[in-house]
Write a structure and sequence with these properties.
The complex is a heterodimer of chains A (118) and B (112).
Chain A lengths: L4 E3 L2 E4 L5 E6 L6 E7 L6 E7 L2 E4 L8 E4 L6 E5 L8 E8 L3 E2 L2 E2 L3 E2 L3 E5 L1
Parallel strand pairs in A: 2-13
Antiparallel strand pairs in A: 1-3, 3-8, 4-5, 4-9, 5-6, 7-8, 9-12, 9-13, 10-11
Chain B lengths: L3 E4 L2 E5 L4 E7 L3 E9 L6 E6 L5 E4 L2 E5 L5 E6 L8 E9 L7 E2 L3 E6 L1
Parallel strand pairs in B: 2-11
Antiparallel strand pairs in B: 1-3, 3-8, 4-5, 4-9, 6-7, 7-8, 9-10, 9-11
The chains are: A mainly beta (118), B mainly beta (112).
Chain lengths: 118, 112
């Protein structure tokens, strides 16, 4: 079974530029997550999709970040314009469902995109 | 705000030693997961615990969920260099946001 694919793996941009990340989840997984992981910290959820609908985007900085999941499969995360503090690894994860009752399903993570903003 | 704290932040030990890392919250978890993350990769799930007092074993790793479901521990017996990595706990709560919240992790280095 193929894992979660992400591209690019690395990106270096200057502040105020735009950048986009792409994620292809495991086939058949309904739930897709984007996380931001700053060096020395755990992943922080930015947005969660169930099929092509947004379930939780409460921690997404909507003035500069946007995400979409067209057709409920691939997803893109965009930052426009980028700030220095956006330097981080952006992780995409997917799961077959969000939860059963209150028990969270296993999330499968991609390798991440390391973004450096200079 | 539901917070999740992990300790210690860093741990450097010799091969063959035992270690325990901790995950704590002031609120009751509905479920808790432990992940391991290696450099340049995404986290990989090790275990999910749900029931208070639950103990799960994965080879040399023992996971315990507190009776009150507010804390958890991961114990590694006879650590090996292959255990090196970032250990993350991730919790979900009954109230508020149901999405997983990750701790800041324990970075483990096992020296040969």
């Amino acid at each position: 079974e193929a894992g979660v694919a992400q591209s690019p793996r690395y990106k270096i941009i200057e502040k105020r530029q735009s950048v986009a990340f792409w994620c292809n989840p495991i086939s058949g997984h309904a739930t897709l997550y984007w996380y931001q992981q700053i060096l020395g910290q755990g992943p922080k959820l930015l947005i969660q999709f169930q099929n092509n609908g947004v379930v939780d985007d409460s921690q997404l900085p909507k003035d500069r970040f946007s995400a979409e999941r067209l057709k409920g499969v691939d997803s893109t995360l965009k930052i426009q314009p980028a700030k220095l503090e956006d330097s981080a690894v952006y992780l995409c994860a997917s799961s077959s469902q969000f939860s059963i009752g209150l028990i969270s399903y296993e999330q499968y993570f991609g390798p991440g995109t390391r973004l450096t903003v200079t | 705000t539901q917070l999740l704290e992990q300790s210690p932040q860093f741990l450097s030990i010799q091969e063959g030693e035992n270690l325990t890392v901790y995950c704590n919250s002031s609120s009751v978890f509905s479920s808790l997961q432990w992940y391991r993350q290696e450099p340049g990769e995404g986290p990989v799930l090790l275990v999910t615990v749900v029931t208070g007092g639950e103990v799960k074993k994965l080879k040399r790793l023992t996971f315990q969920f507190g009776d009150a479901r507010k804390d958890s521990s991961l114990h590694i017996t006879a650590a090996q260099p292959g255990d090196t990595g970032l250990y993350l706990c991730a919790g979900a709560w009954n109230t508020g946001r149901r999405a997983l919240t990750f701790g800041s992790g324990t970075r483990l280095q096992v020296q040969p």
